[in-house]
Amino acid sequence: MIISVASGKGGTGKTLVATSLAFSLKSKQPVQLLDCDVEEPNDHIFLKPVITQKEAVCIQVPKVDEAKCTHCGLCAEVCAYNALAVLPDRVMVFPELCHGCGACSYLCPEKAISEEGRETGVVEWGQADGIDFVQGRINVGEAMAPPAIRQVRERANADGVVIIDVPPGTSCPVVEAIKGSHFCLLVTEPTPFGLNDLVLAVETVRELNIPLAVVLNRAGGEYTKVEEYCRKENIPILLTIPLDTEIARLYSRGVTLAEGMPETQEMFILLWDEIRKILDEGTGSLKR
Amino acid sequence: MKELVVLSGKGGTGKTSIVGSLAALAEDKILADCDVDAADLHLLLEPVVRQKQEFWSGQVAVIDEEKCTQCGLCPELCHFEAIKDFRVDPVSCEGCGFCYHICPDEAITMKENLSGHWFISDTKYGPLVHARLGIAQENSGKLVALVRQQAREMAEKQGAACIISDGPPGIGCPVISSLSGASLALLVTEPTLSGIHDLERVLGVCRHFGVPALVCINKYDINEENSRRIEDYCLKQEVEVAARIPFDNIVTEAMVKGLPVVQYSDGPVSREIKLLWQNIAGRLSAN
Q: Which H or E run contains A267?
């Protein structure tokens, strides 16, 4: 069972919900947490895992054997990302533009192109006090997050509960992290920014045909438009976390809610029961 | 013409609220929202759209079922596992065209992709260039580059002194696209361990691309010990901490009213942001 925790807007509490859910469930059943926010992974700060293994994230980029190359120009012609430029006497490769599709090496009539790995990040895994932990991290200066996210996702062990911490936004890294999930929790806050980005996130998750529900974080103000939107769209709000300075203080120190206030674990276990109920009944807010 | 970009690494630290206020304080500027997949700046600036343009970018493979003989070559060669049951999953397809080139039956075509829209708008604080990436689309970096290019052209045409852009969270493709070649980066952080961790990475990206940076600690008083850690870190890195903004619910109140906080209140938050802008303006005009 794969549950992704996403948001659209950053800083609404994805990491808090993902880590607290994992923390609360670990005594009940096997739990795996995948931190797919590979640009800014933060779950390790809260769960303090012991990392035991890692592997590099590599994109296969072209390497041209100039002795075999006839400078015919086909590779540059087929490359959709302008990662190759063929000059009369040599081929220039721009590895940071390459998506690793493999077209150039396969199509080269002289078999002059081989592939070599270019390291763009790392995937690490280990144990965090009973939680099976995996995280990815792209190197600073690296643009492409999806290959690292794919590699984290490959380690998902769907026999137990898999919780995915998704990066913010609605574009390709988010899709890469969410797709194939059985359920998606969207964490938001009761502000105009929170609502605006929730609407975008809902559209994205619905596009992927994944049932979804909302967690409303920092609740309690006068702004009620998030609740109104959820009611109108028939989206269940499965958990409400109040605006509370003590929770914020715990968070600032790198302590997740379920650990710092153990009485809240019950609430995350109930959240999990609700998700299972929705999936069993098939009533998740798939389409209006 | 100078270009300020506001980044944070971690999301939700207050980039957009601060940019909204800088928009109200700065004179003679063009505004750009470079967070194209979860844009919020328009909620503070009430833009009136003057121009709307389509953003076509990248391609998606389409298989013609009539021509396809299901030979199995394309699913075998696709590096993105985008072809299942001889259909292309447009969400997984990266538009590389490998399948199109190798299909022995010429059953695959590449279709241009409408990836989003971009806009030029009027706001009461000046012109705004912004964009909306389509749902689940790629190429946010290219759309950001387009927004910046439009903002620059406008700034040059109007002789504006600077561009202020609201950047996306993270450190990947759209951030790099927002940052490279800018004059100055303002890094908005918060005194949480996550905020510090993410600040270090985004500062690394600024260094990588040779863009000087300033740091602003937002909600500095929610954990003053962590705020001191940020100050120590910045001192070591020789990066100036240009502002310490206190936590105040007035920021959310202003947001609910659809106003930049400096237009809504004269309290400590607004005073600190005004000092911050003086500092930034001085830097932008100095070099």
A: helix A265-281
Local confidence band at A284 (pLDDT 50, 70, 90 cut-offs):
low
Architecture of domain B57-114: 2-Layer Sandwich (3.30)
Per-residue pLDDT, B139? 76
- What pLDDT is stored for residue A221 in this prediction? 87
Hey, where are the domains in chain B? Answer: 2-46+124-286, 57-114
Of B204, B211, B151, residue with least CA distance to B181: B211
What are the tens digits of pLDDT across the range A190-212? 999 999 999 999 999 999 999 99
Report DSSP state, residue A40. S
| B49: Cα separation from own chain's centroid | 19
A38 vs B contacts (CB less than 8 Å)? 172
DSSP, res B258: T
Residue A224 vs residues A6, A227, B16, B43, B46: alpha-carbon distances, Å: 21, 6, 21, 17, 21
Topology at the third CATH level for domain A58-119: Alpha-Beta Plaits (3.30.70)
CB contact under 8 A, A45 and B198: no
Contact at CB, B137 and A171, closer than 8 angstroms: yes
User: Considering only alpha carbons, which residue of chain B is nearest residue A83?
Assistant: B96
- How much is the pLDDT for A159? 86
Mark yes or no for CB contact A10/B204 under 8 Å. no
Q: What is the pLDDT of residues B227-241, one digit of tens each?
A: 999 999 999 999 999
Q: What pLDDT does residue A283 have? A: 62
Tell which of B135, B140, B201 to mutate to test the A interface (max A CBs under 10 Å).
B135
Q: Is the pLDDT of residue A286 over 60?
A: no
Q: Is the pLDDT of residue A288 over 60?
A: no
Q: Which residues on B lie below 8 Å from A100 (Cβ)?
A: 79
Of all helices (H) and strands (E), which one includes residue A213?
strand A212-219
Which residue of B59, B77, B80 is in closest CB contact with A106? Answer: B77
Q: Which CATH superfamily is domain A2-48+129-281 in?
A: P-loop containing nucleotide triphosphate hydrolases (3.40.50.300)
Q: Which of residues 42-71 of A touch B (CB under 8 A)?
A: 42, 45, 60
Quote the pLDDT of residue A87: 95
- The chain B residue lying nearest A44, using CA atoms, is B194
CATH of domain B2-46+124-286: 3.40.50.300
